[in-house]
Write a structure and sequence with these properties.
Largest sheet: 7 strands, parallel
CATH class: Alpha Beta
Distance between the termini: 64 Å
Strand content: 15-25%
Mean pLDDT: 95
CATH architecture: 3-Layer(aba) Sandwich
Low-confidence stretches: none
Number of helices: 8
Structural class: alpha/beta
Oligomer: single chain
CATH topology: Rossmann fold
Strand order of the largest sheet: 3-2-1-4-6-7-9
């Protein structure tokens, strides 16, 4: 009998990460979840929680070493830790923009760099990066979040080409708007500009409507499980009718019509 795969899930204290970690553990995998404050995370008997701040290189190294000391290997890395910054792009301070990228993009880079030497020695492994519909279209008033996810998309695509000779698979999960705790933890820019008030309010109200009617984190969890179980997973996994529809419309509609549709969806037309 072979030992179960060792899976590391970042941002596993709630939402998509918690749902994915729980489902994977129920399927017999040995799952390590992470949180900045693991002692405060909800206890789940199937998930071994480890402290991690993806913005700290020292914390990333310590997390990976803790797992390696217990298991000797890491088979799957699921980069899920992220947050959303809302507000017009002009409103976002450079420090706020940097913070958004430090978590959503550079956090993935740090984790990936730390596990790759292990996976290359193993000559196998899998990296699953949780992206978003916001990585496929620029979402108004979530523009900095979109920018971080666009960066993740390009990084993951190039990484997939580079790692294939080592037997390491890279995949992206791209859900549309979801009903998860993340919708209540959205951060707002510190210095809003009054000229944007009407449009910001309309757009974020539309986002909340999409989220309230959207699927839960189980959608992402089930997709992650299928990718983990696949012998040859593809790069992109677009989840939900909303995300698939928007992706198809972008491919086939003239640009002017697509933009008109986006403006209408987020109530940006007068």
């Amino acid at each position: 009998m072979t030992d179960p795969k060792i899976i590391l899930v970042t941002g596993a204290s709630s939402g998509n990460g918690q749902a994915a970690a729980r489902l994977l553990s129920q399927q017999g995998y040995r799952v390590f979840g992470t949180s900045r404050h693991p002692a405060d995370a909800a206890k789940d008997p199937g998930i071994e929680m480890v402290e991690l701040d993806v913005c700290s290189a020292g914390s990333v190294a310590a997390c990976v070493q803790t797992i390696l000391q217990k298991t000797g290997r890491i088979d799957n890395l699921i980069n899920n830790a992220a947050y959303e910054l809302s507000g017009a792009l002009e409103e976002a301070g450079l420090d706020e923009a940097e913070s958004q990228f430090q978590t959503n993009f550079f956090g993935v880079v740090r984790m990936t760099r730390e596990v790759l030497p292990v996976m290359r020695r193993q000559k196998k492994g899998q990296i699953i990066n949780i992206s978003s519909l916001a990585g496929l279209i620029g979402v108004p008033f979530l523009g900095m979040y979109s920018a971080s996810k666009f960066a993740l998309e390009g990084y993951s695509e190039a990484l997939r080409y580079e790692l294939r000779p080592f037997g390491i698979h890279v995949s992206l999960v791209e859900p549309g708007f979801l009903k998860t705790p993340m919708m209540y933890a959205r951060q707002s820019v510190r210095h809003p500009i009054s000229d944007y008030d009407l449009w910001r309010k309309r757009a974020l109200a539309a986002v909340r409507e999409f989220e309230e009617s959207g699927p839960g984190p189980e959608l992402v969890a089930n997709a992650v499980l299928k990718i983990v179980q696949s012998k040859s997973p593809r790069l992109r996994h677009i989840l939900g009718q909303q995300a698939m529809l928007v992706s198809d419309l972008r491919r086939f509609l003239p640009e002017v019509m697509f933009e008109r549709g986006i403006r209408g969806s987020f109530k940006l037309d007068v």
